[in-house]
């Protein structure tokens, strides 16, 4: 089982980034995939999740209307489109397969001018 995140980086406030999480080693089709984020010294918090079978999504209040989670079952990849980024979105972002409690290694997102 492997989850590999990519797409993080440095962006100015108001900018956009698209994170990707490539999954392998398990059946992606019937899982719930999530994005979390964590700042140093703080607990990891749920940002968004998607049920890959039905496409149902949910978001943290802090990102509603700005972030969008999606998945590509053929590519076994889940995405997090982040728009209107704010400095407080600066964190390490992690992908997780909820069904098997497996995490990726994380990707750093820094929002700064």
Structure overview:
- The structure is a single chain.
- This protein is mainly beta.
- It has no helices and eleven strands.
- The protein has strands at residues 2-6, 9-11, 17-24, 32-38, 45-51, 57-59, 67-72, 77-82, 91-97, 102-103, 107-111.
- The strands form two sheets. Strands 2, 4, 5, 6, 9, 10 and 11 form a seven-stranded mixed β-sheet that branches.
- A hairpin with a 6-residue loop joins strand 4 (32-38) and strand 5.
- It is globular, with a radius of gyration of 13 Å.
- The relative contact order is 0.33.
Short précis:
By secondary structure, this protein is mainly beta. It has strands at residues 2-6, 9-11, 17-24, 32-38, 45-51, 57-59, 67-72, 77-82, 91-97, 102-103, 107-111.
Give the N-terminus to C-terminus distance in angstroms.
37 Å
What is the helix content?
A: under 10%
Strand portion: over 45%
DSSP helical segment count:
0
Whole-number radius of gyration? 13 Å
Which segments are poorly predicted (pLDDT under 50) over 5 or more consecutive residues? none
Number of strands: 11
SSE sequence, one letter per element: EEEEEEEEEEE
Shape call: globular
Q: Which class of secondary structure composition applies to the elements?
A: mainly beta
The major β-sheet equals:
7 strands, mixed
């Amino acid at each position: 089982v492997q989850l590999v995140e990519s797409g993080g980086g440095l962006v100015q406030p108001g900018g956009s980034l698209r994170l990707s999480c490539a999954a392998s080693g398990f059946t992606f089709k019937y899982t719930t995939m999530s994005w979390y984020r964590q700042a140093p010294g703080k607990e990891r918090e749920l940002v968004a999740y998607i049920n890959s079978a039905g496409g149902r999504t949910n978001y943290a209040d802090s990102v509603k209307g700005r972030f969008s989670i999606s998945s590509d079952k053929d590519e076994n990849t889940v995405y997090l489109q982040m728009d209107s980024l704010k400095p407080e979105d600066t964190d390490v972002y992690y992908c997780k397969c909820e069904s098997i409690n497996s995490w990726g290694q994380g990707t750093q997102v820094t929002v700064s001018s």
